[in-house]
Specification:
The structure is a single chain. It is built from 7 helices and 9 strands; from the N terminus they run H-H-E-E-H-E-H-E-E-H-H-E-E-E-H-E. By secondary structure, the chain is α/β, with parallel strands linked by helices. The chain folds into 2 domains: 140 residues, SPOUT methyltransferase, trefoil knot domain (Alpha/beta knot, 3-Layer(aba) Sandwich); 40 residues, Orthogonal Bundle (Trp Operon Repressor, Chain A). Strand 7 and strand 8 form a beta hairpin. Helix 4 crosses helix 5. The longest helix is centred in the N-terminal third of the chain and has 14 residues. The radius of gyration is 22 Å and the shape is elongated. 15% of the residues are buried. It binds adenine (ADE). The site of adenine has 12 residues, from strand 3.
């Protein structure tokens, strides 16, 4: 799931252009014994299996060898909720991130001792941290200089810290099933167009 997504769209472009470097680390590589065990039954009983601390520490310590200063992040609904200004801070910090994707509530609690920051992508629960980690990576990577491309996009982006996202846009055809493109946009009056665009910025919910 992770490799496939990192290999598409903006994230692919960013790594191809060496603006960002991704290392995907498979926890099983740090599993115990010949069967590379990564989970076990919980002490005190209960359903399901828990991700064990040794493989997790193994994977994170391995990652720290690659980047000793990296910040270690756990994706969890119990974390601080991701927003645009957080993404902006990560993007401008130039810091490496080690993002640990766990099964929701399915890990040995002692892993928290190696975590610097917990991040949630919203007030709902997913089965694992993979999709949240990809959301985090995407929000950050698209803000890195050179990734977005195009002056206009970058200019619009500069407003987004105030919760403003871009104005409505249209392309051909000029009329579709009775829905017309606002006439000012096809008027050729640049000052009027700019005025319309400025008046029609939308706000994030
Ligand atoms: N893991 C499960 N649900 C999550 C969420 N909402 N945010 C981050 N990680 C999660």
């Amino acid at each position: 799931m992770i490799k496939e997504t990192l290999n598409s769209s903006m994230m692919f472009k960013a790594s191809k252009n060496e603006i960002v470097n991704f290392e995907v680390i498979d926890l099983r590589q740090f599993g115990l014994g010949p069967r590379k065990q990564v989970d076990d039954t919980p002490y005190g009983g209960g359903d399901g299996m828990l991700m064990m601390i040794e493989p997790i520490f193994g994977a994170i310590e391995h990652s720290k060898k690659l980047s000793p200063e990296a910040e270690v992040i756990l994706m969890t609904p119990a974390g601080d909720t991701l927003n645009q200004s957080m993404a902006r801070d990560f993007a401008s910090s130039n810091k490496d991130l080690i993002i640990f994707c766990a099964h929701y509530e399915g890990y040995d609690e002692r892993i928290l001792s190696i975590i610097d920051k917990k991040i949630s992508i919203g007030n709902y629960v997913l089965t694992g941290g993979e999709l949240p980690a990809l959301v985090l990576v995407d929000t950050i990577v698209r803000l890195l200089p050179g990734v977005l491309g195009g002056e206009k996009s970058a200019e619009i982006e500069s407003f987004s810290q105030d919760g403003i996202i871009e104005y409505p846009q249209y392309t051909k055809p000029r009329e579709f099933r009775g829905m017309e493109v606002p006439s000012v946009l096809v008027s050729g009056h640049h000052a009027e167009i700019e005025k319309w665009q400025n008046e029609n910025y939308r706000h994030q919910n």
